[in-house]
Write a structure and sequence with these properties.
Keywords: Membrane, Transmembrane, Transmembrane helix
Radius of gyration: 24 Å
Largest sheet: 7 strands, mixed
Strand order of the largest sheet: 1-2-3-4-7-9-8
Number of strands: 9
InterPro entries: NERD
Protein name: NERD domain-containing protein
Organism: Pontiella desulfatans
Helix content: 40-55%
Length: 248
């Protein structure tokens, strides 16, 4: 006889989405690398100065002192800059974790993949969701303030970001389409979704150049929307099987 607790666990797992991967890993790792790579330059310069002074100095004491002072100032500035950049990446990681938590409570018809990257691919996928309405590529942005859209472009604080999120999620969707085609999974509807957390949007749900833009609290509603004819369960299982191979 199966203990009541095990029955309860099995019942819960059959009610909610299957979840694979770990959210927020990519921004944490990339954040450390991109934020503190200047330290390598500082270490190189410091090593040069030490070599210039020991054991056969060819720089004067005053020259070495000035150079060490300049290196110290540069290190302080770069560390402050790196700390700020790292904070932005960690904030992004927290946003991905929040979204992953919400996605975990989708019903059992859905399968969620967090933090996926294809071998040889260029894109880091925040979330890929396979459900009755299609396959969704969700890009999460945990930004303060507000964003606006003009002529199909996104502006934050009146400026277009250096890495436009709309272009980013479209590129991710294109890579997923290529992956699905190569896997022989047929012509499936792929939906690009840009989800904002803590950001003021003109509308809670909107379509911008074919990308669904929404707030965090509207994301699940968007995923449950019927965009096309429902995908057959057998086809969903085939797509899920191919995506699982990426992480196994």
């Amino acid at each position: 006889m199966v203990p009541p607790m095990e029955n309860s666990k099995e019942s819960l797992s059959s009610r909610f989405a299957k979840v694979y991967g770990s959210p927020g890993e990519a921004p944490r790792v990339l954040g450390l690398l991109r934020a503190f790579w200047p330290l390598l330059v500082i270490c190189f310069v410091t090593g040069y100065l030490l070599r210039a002074w020991f054991p056969h100095p060819y720089l004067g004491v005053s020259q070495v002192g000035i150079l060490f002072f300049l290196v110290a100032v540069a290190a302080a500035i770069l560390l402050a800059w790196g700390d700020k950049r790292l904070g932005n990446f960690l904030k992004g990681a927290k946003g991905e974790e929040w979204v992953a938590h919400e996605l975990a409570f989708l019903n059992a018809e859905y399968t969620v993949f967090n933090g996926l990257r294809f071998g040889g691919g260029k894109q880091n996928f925040d979330h890929i969701i396979v459900g009755p309405a299609g396959v969704f590529v969700v890009e999460t942005k945990n930004w303060k303030g507000s964003v606006e859209f003009h002529d199909g472009k996104l502006y934050a604080g009146g400026r277009e970001p250096s890495r436009p999120p709309l272009r980013q999620v479209k590129a991710a969707a294109a890579e997923l389409v290529s992956f699905i085609d190569d896997a022989g999974c047929g012509d499936l509807p792929i939906h690009s979704v840009l989800c904002f957390l803590g950001t003021k949007l003109p509308q809670e749900v909107m379509n911008v150049n074919g990308v669904v833009v929404c707030t965090g609290k509207k994301l699940v509603e968007v995923l449950q929307e019927t965009f096309d004819e429902p995908i057959a369960e057998s086809m969903r299982e085939k797509v899920v099987g191919e995506l699982r191979k990426v992480i196994e």
